[in-house]
């Protein structure tokens, strides 16, 4: 189940970062009830609201989504619906 969940998040996040040339997802982890999406972007990050929209229906509702940049910044995206 965990592998399926993280694979779905990886797929959605890969599509999300394609909005920024040179950006990439370097990892996806489930930490307690948080989905952590680690990204490397040249600048700026893509709009995080589109990531949350892309996850709708792909993962269970009620998980907090956090984007973690390579600089260590944590961006609270929201909670899956």
What does this structure look like?
By secondary structure, this protein is of the alpha+beta class. It is built from two helices and four strands; from the N terminus they run αββαββ. It has helices at 2-17, 48-55; strands at residues 24-31, 34-40, 64-69, 74-79. β3 and β4 form a beta hairpin. The radius of gyration is 11 Å and the shape is globular.
* Low-pLDDT sequence parts: none
Strand content: 25-35%
Biggest pleated-sheet summary: 4 strands, mixed
Q: Termini distance?
A: 18 Å
Order of helices and strands: HEEHEE
Please tell me the total number of domains.
1
For the residues shown, what is the average pLDDT?
93
Helix content: 25-40%
Rg over CA atoms: 11 Å
Helix/strand layout:
Layout lengths: L1 H16 L6 E8 L2 E7 L7 H8 L8 E6 L4 E6 L2
Parallel strand pairs: 2-3
Antiparallel strand pairs: 1-2, 3-4
Short structural description:
The protein is an alpha+beta fold and 81 residues long. Helices cover 30% and strands 33% of the residues. The longest helix has 16 residues, at 2-17.
List keywords for this structure.
81 residues, alpha+beta
